[in-house]
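Progress note, sequence design subtask.
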C-alpha cells in the first residue's frame, strides 16, 4: 500500500479514538459525580487517561510517518514507542490514585453510592464503544504494523473488562439494598481495586514491550529463523544477524560468508537471494546484506594462487608445478602494467612470490616470467602482409598435417617489423584440451623456426562441428 494512504488510515482511526475517549470521559465523569460511585469515577479517570493516551497516539502516528532525514536516518518510527511508554506511565499514575481512594472507602470512610439507570447506561455504553474502538485500532495496527495503535488497542480492550467489573460492583450495591447485607455496599470500591489491578497488569505488559522496542530487542527465535533462512546456495555460513524495529518500519542487516573466488555477478545474486529470504520472514523490511569472502574447504592450489595474484593486482597464467626429488618447483607467467619499469615490476612480483611462499612453505623455488599486460598498446596500426604464403607454411607443418588441415579465418599483419598471425584451427571434438594446447605450442615453435621476424601467434582451437567454422 502507498505510504500516504497508510498514514491517512492510521491518522483517521487515531482521531476517531480521540473523539470517542473525549465523549466517554465526560459522560462517565458526570454520571460518577451524580451517583457517587467510586467504580464509575475510577472509570472516568481511566477514560480521561484514555483521552490523553489517544491524543499522544494521534500525534505519534502523525510524526512517525515522516520520512527519514539527515538527523534521523532510520526515520521517526521510535516516536510510536515513546508514545506507548507515555501511556504506560499515565496508566500507572492513575492506578495509584484509584487504589488510594478505594482503600480509603473500604477501610476508613463510608460513601453513599446512588445507583441509577444512568450508572448502568454509562457502563454498558462504555463497553459497546470500547469494543468497537479496540477492534478498529487492532485491525489498523495489524494492517500497518503500528506499535502505537497496537498499544492503544490493547489499552482500550482492557476498558471492556474493567467496565464489566464496575458493572458487577453496581449490581452488588443494588443487591445490598434489597437484601440488607451491609458489606455489599463496599463492593463498588472493591470493584475499583479490581479495575486498578487489571490496568496495572496490562500497563506492565505494555511497558515491558515498549522498553524492549526502544532498546531494539527482538525475539531470539527471530534471529535464529533468519540465520537458518539465509543459508541459500552460495552461502558457506551465516555470520552476524541483527534486526530492529522503528515504529512500523523494520530493519535487518546480515553477514554471510561466500567463497572468495565468487564473481561480482554471483555475489550480487547471492545477496539478492538472502534479501528475499529475510523479506519472507520480515515483510517490508529494509535489509542490508554484507558479504564476507572467505577461504572455502575445497579450494585448489591453483585457485589460491590466482586469488593471491588478484589481491596483489596481478594477472597470472601458465602455472606449472613440478615435483623433483621430493621438492616442489613452480613456474608462472605474471602480467603487470606495461607502464612499469623493470624495477617496479620486479618489486611487485617479489611481494607476490613472498606471499606464495608463506601460503605454501613446501615450494622450494618459484620461477616467474614477467610480461606486460598490454592494455595501453592494444590498439595498433598493422601493415600489409601476405596471408597466402603463411597459409602454405602452416599447411606444410608436420604437426598440422597429422592433426588435420582444417585451418580457417587466417589473419596476418605486420606491426613494427614483426609478423603477427592469428587463425582458427578445427580439431577432433573428443581431443583432450591438454593435448590441444600442446599441439598449438608445437605449431608455434615450428612457425618461429621458419619465420624469423614472427611476433604474436594466436591460435583459436575449436571442435570440427563447431558453428564458428562458418
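Output:
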Amino acid at each position: 500500500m502507498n505510504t500516504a494512504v497508510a498514514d491517512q488510515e492510521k491518522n483517521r482511526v487515531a482521531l476517531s479514538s480521540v473523539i470517542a475517549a473525549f465523549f466517554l470521559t465526560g459522560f462517565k465523569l458526570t454520571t460518577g459525580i451524580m451517583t457517587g460511585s467510586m467504580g464509575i469515577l475510577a472509570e472516568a479517570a481511566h477514560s480521561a487517561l484514555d483521552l490523553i493516551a489517544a491524543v499522544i497516539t494521534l500525534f505519534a502516528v502523525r510524526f512517525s510517518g515522516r520520512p527519514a532525514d539527515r538527523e534521523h536516518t532510520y526515520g521517526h518510527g521510535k516516536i510510536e514507542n515513546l508514545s506507548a511508554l507515555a501511556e504506560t506511565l499515565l496508566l500507572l499514575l492513575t492506578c495509584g490514585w484509584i487504589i488510594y481512594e478505594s482503600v480509603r472507602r473500604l477501610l476508613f470512610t463510608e460513601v453513599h453510592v446512588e445507583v441509577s439507570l444512568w450508572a448502568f447506561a454509562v457502563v454498558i455504553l462504555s463497553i459497546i464503544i470500547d469494543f468497537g474502538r479496540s477492534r478498529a485500532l487492532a485491525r489498523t495496527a495489524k494492517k500497518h504494523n503500528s506499535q502505537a495503535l497496537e498499544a492503544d488497542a490493547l489499552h482500550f480492550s482492557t476498558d471492556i473488562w474493567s467496565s464489566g467489573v464496575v458493572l458487577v460492583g453496581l449490581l452488588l450495591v443494588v443487591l445490598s439494598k434489597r437484601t440488607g447485607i451491609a458489606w455489599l455496599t463496599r463492593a463498588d470500591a472493591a470493584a475499583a481495586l479490581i479495575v486498578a489491578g487489571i490496568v496495572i497488569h496490562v500497563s506492565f505488559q505494555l511497558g515491558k514491550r515498549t522498553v524492549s522496542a526502544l532498546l531494539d530487542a527482538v525475539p531470539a527465535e527471530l534471529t535464529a529463523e533468519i540465520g537458518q533462512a539465509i543459508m541459500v546456495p552460495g552461502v558457506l555460513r551465516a555470520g552476524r544477524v541483527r534486526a530492529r524495529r522503528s515504529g512500523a518500519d523494520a530493519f535487518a542487516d546480515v553477514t554471510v560468508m561466500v567463497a572468495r573466488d565468487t564473481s561480482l555477478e554471483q555475489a550480487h545474486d547471492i545477496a539478492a537471494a538472502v534479501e528475499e529470504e529475510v523479506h519472507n520472514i520480515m515483510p517490508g523490511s529494509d535489509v542490508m546484506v554484507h558479504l564476507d569472502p572467505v577461504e572455502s574447504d575445497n579450494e585448489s592450489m591453483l585457485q589460491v594462487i590466482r586469488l593471491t595474484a588478484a589481491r596483489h593486482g596481478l594477472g597470472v597464467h601458465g602455472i606449472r608445478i613440478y615435483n623433483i626429488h621430493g621438492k616442489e618447483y613452480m613456474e608462472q607467467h605474471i602480467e603487470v602494467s606495461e607502464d612499469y619499469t623493470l624495477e617496479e615490476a620486479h618489486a611487485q612480483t617479489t611481494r607476490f612470490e613472498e606471499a606464495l611462499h608463506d601460503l605454501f612453505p613446501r615450494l622450494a623455488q618459484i620461477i616467474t616470467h614477467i610480461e606486460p599486460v598490454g592494455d595501453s598498446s592494444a590498439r595498433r596500426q598493422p601493415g600489409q602482409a601476405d596471408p597466402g604464403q603463411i597459409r602454405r607454411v602452416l599447411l606444410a607443418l608436420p604437426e598440422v598435417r597429422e592433426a588435420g588441415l582444417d585451418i580457417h579465418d587466417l589473419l596476418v599483419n605486420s606491426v613494427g617489423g614483426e609478423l603477427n598471425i592469428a587463425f582458427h584451427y578445427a580439431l577432433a571434438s573428443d581431443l583432450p584440451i591438454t593435448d590441444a594446447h600442446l599441439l598449438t605450442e608445437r605449431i608455434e615453435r615450428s612457425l618461429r623456426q621458419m619465420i624469423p621476424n614472427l611476433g604474436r601467434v594466436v591460435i583459436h582451437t575449436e571442435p570440427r562441428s563447431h558453428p564458428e567454422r562458418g
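The chain has 13 helices and nine strands. Work on this subtask will continue into the next period as scheduled.
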